[in-house]
Amino acid sequence: MARSHTFHYVLMLMPALILVTLFNIYPMSGIVLAFKHFNPTEGIWGSPWAGLDHFESIVQSSESKQILKNTLVISVLKMITMLIVPVVFALLLNEVRIHWLKRSVQTIVYLPHFLSWVVIAGIMREALGLDGVVNSMLQAWFGLEAQMFLGSNVWFRPILILSNVWKEFGFSTIIYLAALTSINPALYEAADIDGANRFQKMKHITIPGISMTIVLLATLSLQGILNAGFDQVFNLYNVLVYETADIIDTYIYRSGLVSFQYEAATAIGFINSVISMLLIIITYWLAYRFAKYRIF
């Protein structure tokens, strides 16, 4: 009897399970490339074994160290800004008493989240180009020379961070605004009776009321510390900024699909996947430890 009641659920899951198996699980067998000297004529399984040679080359390479540094710097800066900006904006927006204005601003800042980085990169290339609107304004208003913003190792990282904040902070803001609605209004009423001003209520009621949400999101963000945003970087960077912009994912792409160094690309991807899995385990443990959040 139980089987008849659950069979249709299993049947509904089958297409998804088949897709996951074909596109996520089966391709993992290609990890063996990291331990091979790949020869296209002999195929993956017929190619001779290389042992840990590719991993040793990666560890000893100065280029790999620079790529890891770039990835960590960009990821950490994104994590910090995406923690501070949405919280501050949510607190400020929560103080707005005109409901239609509050809703309108909330919608407007949320819209960039739905834009593709391909579209945003195209807009930024036009705006920040030598003949773009930014350089035109700098020349007309301040008499400054035109800057290659997307070709400068000084400007490229700040542009990455600021454009990421502009695109994504609206989504995180909604999460914090939802958390603000769970605060008991009686606390604010008691604070009004005691003569507390808005700043004091924000300091002693609002921020402590969403502190667990802040801790939870900050903890969960740690799992993406090796994910600096392939889509964004790939669509914006160029050879002039490899020194500060080349991250693990873009290096894997160039090594494997451009330079045809399949073994090295697979080895780096394997290391990245193992570390990412460990980070996911640690972050979920920390989320349960400090915020009592768990999936299973």
From TrEMBL:
Alphabetic keyword roster: Cell membrane, Membrane, Transmembrane, Transmembrane helix, Transport
Mode of membrane association: Multi-pass membrane protein
GO cellular component, as recorded: plasma membrane
InterPro entries (alphabetical): MetI-like (IPR000515), MetI-like_sf (IPR035906), UgpAE/MalFG_permease (IPR050809)
Any GO BP annotation: transmembrane transport
Subcellular location: Cell membrane
Residues annotated as transmembrane: 7-26, 72-93, 105-124, 169-188, 209-230, 264-287
Domain ABC transmembrane type-1 residues, every copy: 68-283
Keyword Transport carried by entry: yes
Pfam family, any one: BPD_transp_1
Claim: Transmembrane helix is one of the keywords in the record: yes
Domain of life: Bacteria
Protein family membership: Belongs to the binding-protein-dependent transport system permease family.
Protein known as: Protein lplB
Organism of origin: Paenibacillus swuensis
Species classification: Bacteria, Bacillati, Bacillota, Bacilli, Bacillales
